[in-house]
Structure formats: structure tokens, C-alpha cells
Design a protein that fits this description.
7-stranded mixed beta sheet; protein-N-terminal glutamine amidohydrolase activity; SAP_dom_sf; 15% strand; alpha/beta; Nitrilase/N-carbamoyl-D-aminoacid amidohydrolase; 6-stranded mixed beta sheet
Length: 541
């Protein structure tokens, strides 16, 4: 199938991809592969459409139902009696009609009229017999229309995003459309908790369980339910926790022995975002500098940031956060494009700017930039202290599709002790999302990592794309941090500070919505936030 594309130029291939609504960046081989996969997907959808016919356009109004029919399943005797009625009606009508001749014409025709209602001339039928048999008639199972709707939505979603359906997904769609129980789901997994614990879910996502296990080890995530239940491995001696950990576990267990009513108010997606009047002293002042960088215009972007910060002096800010890839722009489609803007972790222009501002403002400065090392390229952030020293360089762990054009995955999430701040964790944009958007949404890899490591301040540099309004973006970030709210010990408090960018860049629009959130086991609180404006917010928390 790919032979017909080999003789086309890259520009022609990109035009074909644009017409199909597909990403059109990459090498020629990648473009051809994308077109071939798209054709295969279209063929699969066509085969599904052929199989199901016009099922998606079906509705009750298209049924030619007679209002006198009371039950779709009738005994053979009743059906025969109805046929006799209809034959009698037609015969009677035909015998009573007379030829009609139009004036000034030799053409004559005989109209035949069909009546729905029975006439007095029809053959009498024993009506009481029908009524007596009604009680014995089997009732048809009613299939909720929602099932068909779900199947249609799944198919439409797959068409819209160009997702290639696997055999399991196709079987599920067929099963839903025709009301057949899905055989791939365990009958025991009827409740959300049971469904979450079944291994079927991981298989349906198409991710090898071994890959999930390795990723969990890499990011220090919680063990699976089966591993928690049976922690003793054959040939290994069980390790006992220290008394402090045991006490923490006991307190957490006691706190979760609450009434059912209280549990209902704290479900997975039920949390409260509230505003809070600040009256906090001797807490670090977090500042987010939100602006709209120009692509590949490093010097001009630095001038913008300098202009927004020039009014501030030492002691005004304790932690200054800038967006992901703040001065270079974000949308790079190949390694060749970004190569001139890659920086090392000590002498690059972004790091030098951070050092200068850190010394001037006597604060920590966090800035995103594209990093080069001897081994690979990374989407990174540097954290510089008030003395102008780089105390840590964090490399993005979960890559977005734009990052995959040039960057490698970082070694994993991190939480470290920083003098003057406490336990600090770093993140970059996509780190908040499920891994490659393939992992289960409720794995909450980033949030669970920081819950387990008792992180006190989470700092995130963002280049988050706009979908709805700013509050929708903030609510989504809060949703991705739910474990820090649901499973936090009493009195535990986590501060989440995210600095995003705004503006348009190569067809991508960014969401703004920089914010500072306070997360406890009672509420997720918005301490301050921005919309699509440019400027600096400072929150003491």
C-alpha cells in the first residue's frame, strides 16, 4: 500500500495528511507510514459501516407500526386470524369499487383503498380468546437505547481521532450495538472498585503488564493490589516497616474508618475548589511570571520577562517560576529545528538569565529550557538558588507528542529537600497526564509519587494548550492531583504552583491559567490564578 506514496515529495505527502486532518510533521518515511495507517483505519471503519448498515440512522419514527398491534410476539393462531382479516378487507373493497373514467379521456382506472381499522363486514374473530392469551405471552427484553448510543459514540470518537480499533474493541462495539453481553469483562467486576482491580482493564489498554510494572518501579509508584495483598515473594525474606511508618499507616487506616455519608462526599471526582483569603506570615512567596514568548526569539523573550519583573526587589519573591521552554518557544517539529537553541545546564542563555535574576531578587528561580547533554536532548527546567548556583536540573519524564520530535524521556519524577523550602518536587506539563495518554486515568502517577514522598511544594513549568476557559484548565490540574486530597493525612498540606504561557505559536494556542493551589484532606483551594493575561502573581503560602 505504501508503494503509491514513495514517488511523492514530502510537501505532497504533507498536503495529503493535512486534508485528512492528520499531523504532517516528520520524515518522509513517517509521513508515508502515517498515511498507510490512516488508509487502514478508514478501510476498517468502512467494513464496520458495511457490517452495521444504516443502524446509526435508525429511529422509531421509521418503523411502519400499526397502532392496533399490541404485542410483537403473537401466537400463530392470532397471526392467521389477522391475515384472514386483511384478506377479507381487501376482497370487500375490491368488490365495492367502481371504475373511474376521466372526462375527455379513454383511460379508466379502479382505485383500491386499504383501511387500517377493521370494518363491520370483516369475518368475526373471538376477541376474548386473544385477551386470555395475553397473560401467557412472553415479554420482550427491553434494551436501553443508551447502549447503542455508547457504541455509536465509541465508533465516532475512533473515527474523529483516527484511532485504530483492535479486535477486542470491535467485538465490544458489536456486542453493545446488538445487546450481547461482553464476554471479555469479568462478571465479578460490577462495582467501580472491582472493575479497577481486575487485570482485564490493563489488557484492554494494549499495554504489557510487564511494562506497567517496570514503569511503576521507575517512578516509585504504589504496588498493585495483588502485590499488596501478598507481599511475600518466594525465596525472599519479608521486610518489616519501621515503627514510624507503621504508626503513619495506622493513623491513615483510622481516618478512613468513616461513615458512608462522609465517603460519598469525597468520591474520585467530587472535590471543592474554593478561594481563600490569605493571612499567612513567614511562608515562602511563590511568583508565577506568565507571558507570551515568540518562537525562536530568545533575546526578545528575555526582555519581556525582564520588563515584567523590573518592579520587584529582594524579599518580594522567594520562588520565581517561568513557563516550560520559556525563551525559545515550544513547538519544534524536528531535531534540526531545535538544534541551534539547545543549551547546556550551566552556561546556556536561559540558565544564565535565571542566575542573574536569582542574585538580583535573592530568591530561587525555576526556568524551562531545551537541554543538551553528551548522551541525549531533554525538555528540562533548572532550579537556581539566591547565590546563583544551579541546585537541580529536572528532565521531563512524560513526553507530549511535540516533545517526541526531538527529546528523550527523563529518568523519572523527583522530590528533594531544599534548604529554606522543605521537600520540593518538580514537574513539566505532560508529567501531570497519564503516561502517553495510554495509562489508566486513575493511576495518577505524578500525584501518587509525591503523596508517597511527602512532597510539600510541587513546582510545574507549563506549555499547556488551551481547550476551554482558564477555570476548566485549573479544575483538570486539580483532578490530576486528587490522591493528594483524598489520601492525605490529617494536617498534611501540599502547595502546587504552576506557571503556564499564553499566546499563539505555529497554530497552537496556550491556556494561561497560571495558579497556586493549596491541597489538604479537606479542600483543594485556589490561592490565586491568572486567565489569559500577562503579568506576575505572588502568593505567600
Amino acid at each position: 500500500m505504501s508503494d503509491k506514496y514513495k514517488n511523492l515529495k514530502v510537501k505532497e505527502l504533507q498536503e495529503l495528511l493535512q486534508k485528512s486532518g492528520l499531523p504532517h510533521s516528520g520524515k518522509k518515511e513517517e509521513l508515508i507510514e502515517r498515511l498507510v495507517k490512516h488508509e487502514q483505519t478508514v478501510d476498517e471503519f468502512a467494513s464496520l459501516d458495511d457490517e452495521f448498515g444504516d443502524l446509526g440512522e435508525f429511529d422509531d419514527s421509521k418503523l411502519a407500526l400499526d397502532s392496533d398491534i399490541e404485542d410483537p410476539i403473537a401466537p400463530v393462531e392470532d397471526v392467521l386470524e389477522e391475515e384472514i382479516k386483511e384478506e377479507t378487507k381487501v376482497e370487500l373493497k375490491e368488490t365495492t369499487t367502481t371504475p373511474v373514467v376521466k372526462p375527455n379521456s379513454n383511460f379508466k382506472f379502479t382505485p383500491i383503498v386499504f383501511d387500517k381499522t377493521a370494518t363491520t363486514e370483516t369475518t368475526p374473530v373471538a376477541a376474548p380468546v386473544v385477551e386470555e392469551k395475553k397473560a401467557d405471552k412472553p415479554k420482550l427484553p427491553v434494551i436501553p437505547p443508551k447502549v447503542t448510543d455508547d457504541a455509536e459514540r465509541a465508533l465516532e470518537r475512533a473515527k474523529r481521532f483516527g484511532i485504530q480499533l483492535n479486535d477486542t474493541a470491535k467485538k465490544d462495539i458489536r456486542a453493545q450495538r446488538f445487546g450481547i453481553p461482553a464476554t471479555s469483562v469479568s462478571p465479578k467486576a460490577t462495582s467501580p472498585k472491582a472493575a479497577k482491580s481486575t487485570p482485564v482493564k490493563a489488557a484492554s489498554k494494549g499495554i504489557d503488564p510487564e511494562v506497567l510494572k517496570k514503569r511503576a518501579e521507575r517512578f516509585g509508584l504504589a504496588k498493585t493490589a495483588s502485590e499488596k495483598k501478598n507481599p511475600v515473594v518466594k525465596g525472599k525474606v519479608p521486610v518489616s516497616l519501621d515503627p514510624a511508618e507503621e504508626e503513619k499507616k495506622r493513623k491513615r487506616a483510622e481516618r478512613f474508618q468513616q461513615s458512608e455519608d462522609a465517603k460519598k462526599q469525597k468520591t474520585e471526582y467530587h472535590f471543592t475548589l474554593v478561594y481563600k483569603a490569605l493571612n499567612i506570615k513567614q511562608k515562602p512567596k511563590k511568583a508565577c511570571c506568565q507571558f507570551d514568548p515568540e518562537w525562536c526569539n530568545v533575546k526578545e523573550n528575555m526582555k519581556k520577562a525582564d520588563g515584567l519583573l523590573e518592579m520587584y526587589t529582594p524579599n518580594d519573591i522567594d520562588i520565581l517560576i517561568l513557563p516550560e521552554m520559556a525563551f525559545t518557544g515550544y513547538v519544534f517539529k524536528s531535531t534540526e529545528e531545535i538544534l541551534p537553541y539547545l543549551e547546556d545546564s550551566e552556561t546556556g542563555p536561559s540558565v544564565q538569565w535565571a542566575k542573574k535574576q536569582a542574585i538580583r531578587l535573592q530568591c530561587f528561580v525555576v526556568v524551562g529550557y531545551p537541554q543538551k547533554t553528551d548522551q541525549a536532548y531533554y525538555n528540562s527546567i533548572c532550579c537556581v538558588n539566591a547565590q546563583g548556583s544551579v541546585i537541580y536540573t529536572y528532565q521531563k519524564a512524560f513526553l507530549y507528542e511535540t516533545d517526541e520530535n526531538w527529546a528523550e524521556e527523563g529518568p523519572g519524577f523527583v522530590s528533594l529537600n531544599v534548604n529554606g523550602l522543605g521537600k520540593v518536587g518538580f514537574g513539566i506539563c505532560m508529567d501531570l497526564n497519564p503516561y502517553k495518554f495510554k495509562a489508566d486515568f486513575q493511576d495518577y502517577e505524578f500525584a501518587n509519587y509525591h503523596l508517597q514522598h511527602d512532597t510539600e511544594i510541587i513546582i510545574c513549568s507549563m506549555a499547556w494548550l488551551r481547550s476551554k476557559d482558564s477555570m476548566s484548565t485549573i479544575k483538570y490540574w486539580a483532578t490530576r492531583l486528587l490522591p493528594l486530597y483524598q489520601e492525605a493525612d490529617g494536617g498534611k498540606r501540599t502547595i502546587f504552583a504552576a506557571c503556564n504561557r499564553t499566546g499563539l505559536e505555529r497554530g497552537s494556542e496556550f491556556a494561561g491559567a497560571s495558579c497556586v493551589l493549596e491541597i489538604t484532606n479537606e479542600n483543594i483551594t485556589i490561592l490565586d490564578h491568572m486567565n489569559l493575561d500577562t503579568g506576575v502573581i505572588i502568593v505567600q503560602a
